[in-house]
Amino acid sequence: MSPSPHDEPLVTPLAATLPAAPVDSTATAEETDASARPDLPKVGSRYIWFMVLAQFGVFMAFITPLAISLTIRVNTLAPGHPEYLGFITGAGALFVMLTSPFMGVWSDRTRTRVGRRRPFMVGGMLVGVVSLVVMALSPNVFVLGAGWVLAQWGWGTALSNLQISTADRLPESQRGKVAGLTSFATQIAPVFGVVLAQFFTGDPLLLFLVPGSVGVLFVLLFVLLVHEDDSRGLSKEPITVAQLLAKYLYNPRKHPDFSWNWLGRFFFYTGITLNTTYTAYFFADRLGITVESVAGIIASLSLGGILAVTLGAIGGGFLSDRLRRRRLFITIGGLIMAGGMLAQAFAPDLTMLIVGSLTTSVGLGLFAAVDQALLLDVLPERETDAGRFMGITGFATSIPQSLAPLAASGILLIGVTGDDRNYALLFIVAAASVVIAGAVVLRIRSVR
């Protein structure tokens, strides 16, 4: 359920989302269409702050398991098999990759008194809560993996509809600001989740449900206190199965800038997934301690990362609105992240691990915030198919989350023997990936 989020069919979903080299006349038409599109009215502070809280809650419920809880459960259920963590996270991301455009189309076509997006926020949240219980009580790795698939689907659906709501509502002048605030919230949420989790490592149920309760509270606050227009008056044409499947595809020549943004996100999330999936194991290996002991260290280190993420996310988001520039900030963010990842890869001790982690956090906040604003700038057919295209954007998240952990399992074995793992090489590959991500967005033409 990694979100994400659009017509001429090509051959396969993956090929359809990969950008072809833009033709000058098509790029010009896209730029003209973007400039001619009427802007939306500004949203009020109630919308902004409850959106920030809701995304904070979802990430605390959803990413805390990925940050530490899943690692602890895998180590308990299958000690000595860290590769199972990659298989589990990959399976969840693959499921989302296959379902997210369908969920986006369904959201676009929902007609209720409370709007199109809120029913999916509530439904996703409920599935997400069930998933946390399944993971907490899982008797084996297979059930744990099934719980993570449910978590990806449930919490990812809630998150994607929150993000689709920003596409529905935000004018260009507020996209960087809101993206900066929500990016900051989503980056620090797992920090608070890990801090909480360290107190419940001996109780699997509380390990998952305490962070999850925060997600439930903040999603409900948004649903109950932020108005969404009645969608029953919107038009809805009948759709066949063939037409639905065709909506998984789009013509990248028609929307080249959206395609370049997609490809940049793909490399960004590849780097992030390679960097984060095995963090707990990496720290334990580099510091010579047990995986269970890492929770407290990562929690303490992550608290320092709050300031770093704030600097990158909020600073970059607000400045990109003020200067009306996105691409430069994203490229700089990728370079900063790469520097931090390389520092971690070659860190001889905890001090350098801290320096590398904080540097990565600054770049991560900057890249993620401004790229979210850039996505809204280049999103095609926002008025009718925002959910569909956000779902296709989700491929750029779910494909790396599905394949990168599997690739990481192989990278870790390169150049080592026995029980050793090549974590340094893994972080080097992650750094190269985020540099490429920052370079790719420079090909976008309709946004500065």
Automatic annotation (TrEMBL):
Origin organism lineage: Bacteria, Bacillati, Actinomycetota, Actinomycetes, Micrococcales
Domain Major facilitator superfamily (MFS) profile: 50-448
InterPro entries: MFS, MFS_dom, MFS_trans_sf
Protein name according to UniProt: MFS transporter
GO molecular function, one term: transmembrane transporter activity
Lipid bilayer topology: Multi-pass membrane protein
Chief location of this protein within or outside the cell: membrane
Keyword annotations of the record: Membrane, Transmembrane, Transmembrane helix
Pfam families listed in its UniProt record: MFS_1
Regions that span the bilayer: 47-72, 84-107, 119-137, 143-166, 178-200, 206-226, 262-283, 295-316, 328-347, 353-379, 391-417, 423-442
Subcellular location: Cell membrane
UniProt GO cellular component terms: plasma membrane
